[in-house]
């Protein structure tokens, strides 16, 4: 999630745990502590793929952050001004402010390496877009109230309760979307294919559904207000150009671990390009990487970089509001990738 949300969550937790003892200082200290895991964003790992895939790594590990919380608690138990507060209070303060950061990040599509230094694929439970005002607002109001009053009162618990209720709504909304699309997946013999259901930007009312079916990528937008209307999928070709060459590269292996099977491998202008299909919409993706260039003897690895012309089109996002109640207001193919659109598409036909 964005830094403001993380800071507000930490500030609310700080006010709830230590507000009576420290007043405003608990809010400020909690907000600062909750943003510390994202300091890894300032680390240069050497190339674009490394920066992309090592982010939310060691600094978001449940093991590392639990150790940091224990060390901070030990230090506080030795400091004269902090010893008046029981060590168990300090423990809950440090641990909750730190541990909720990666757990909240794991509720987004990007994925978080909760088990570092173990190496399972990053954990992702897509429930929120990276910025979701309805989750942040109760926490922000709570923090402002605490800073103005100088004492916690009921504000931190109220903010945490409302944000948690919204989290529960997001879980229920996603479950409803999955129930809605499952009959269609069964009917089309796609139920065993990789399926990703994630919220669209800034809301949890319209959800993006992506299905990977070998050389095809099926995309649909599903609203909680679609009623009994079956999802209408736009279908795209999913190039896997020189797959073996790509996965032989370090960058290919790293991206396969990070995002496969929701990726594609394409070639353009003598460049081998790997695109993460999870971030953005068809034809309007946030993350793609040049990993090799063609030479006389085939593909040669290059230092991974993002294409200079990668500029996701955000102009259609306002139409998401209309898509909440109108299934014809916006389709996945509206964002682009028309050259990959297949004739059997149902939402936007290739001729339109």
TrEMBL record:
Transmembrane parts of this sequence: 58-79, 91-112, 124-148, 155-177
Domain of life: Bacteria
Keyword Isomerase annotated: no
Lineage: Bacteria, Pseudomonadati, Pseudomonadota, Gammaproteobacteria, Oceanospirillales
InterPro entries in the cross-refs: Transcription_regulator (IPR053170), YdjM-like (IPR007404)
UniProt organism field: Kushneria aurantia
PANTHER family named in the record: HYPOTHETICAL MEMBRANE SPANNING PROTEIN (PTHR40031), MEMBRANE-BOUND METAL-DEPENDENT HYDROLASE (PTHR40031:SF1)
Name this protein carries in UniProt: Metal-dependent hydrolase
Keywords tagged on the record: Hydrolase, Membrane, Transmembrane, Transmembrane helix
GO MF terms, alphabetically ordered: hydrolase activity
